[in-house]
Amino acid sequence: MIVNIKYLGQIAEATQKIEESLECSESSISELLERLTVKYPDLKTKDFKVAQNQKLVDNDTKLTGQEIAILPPFAGG
After folding, report:
1. Whole-angstrom Cα distance, residue 27 to residue 19?
2. pTM, whole model, 2 decimals?
3. Which helix (H) or strand (E) holds 70?
4. CA 18 vs CA 25, 63, 64, 71: distances in Å
5. How many other C-beta atoms are found inside a 10 Å radius of the C-beta of residue 5?
6. Engineering a disulfide at 72: which of 10, 38, 42, 65 sits with its beta carbon 3.0 to 4.6 angstroms away?
7. How far is Cα 41 from Cα 14, in angstroms, rounded to an integer?
8. Are 63 and 31 in contact (CB under 8 A)?
């Protein structure tokens, strides 16, 4: 499956990209994140959340494709 990934804020700085499309065989968000941290080692030192199809998800969520956003921590309250 093709997954479109958007990187926002500090995460875009760490990857030097704002978006990319990847051919994925991974089945969960955590497997995709493992792949991304190998590709972009600076991600290992960043805190972030993941949204799949515009909904925040945890790392155990099944990867369904379409759109993934890697979001930096939010400030404020």
Report:
1. 20
2. 0.87
3. strand 66-71
4. 22, 20, 21, 11
5. 20
6. 10
7. 8
8. yes
- Write out pLDDT tens, residues 13-46: 999 999 999 998 888 999 999 999 999 999 999 9
How do the domains of the chain map onto residue ranges?
8-63
pLDDT one-digit tens code per residue, 39-56: 999 999 999 999 999 999
Query: Which helix H or strand E contains 39, and what residues bound it?
Result: helix 29-39
39 Cβ contact list (under 8 Å, min separation 6): none
Q: Which two tokens stand for residue 74?
A: 């939010």
Considering Cα of 15, then 34, then 28, then 26, what sign does the dihedral take?
positive
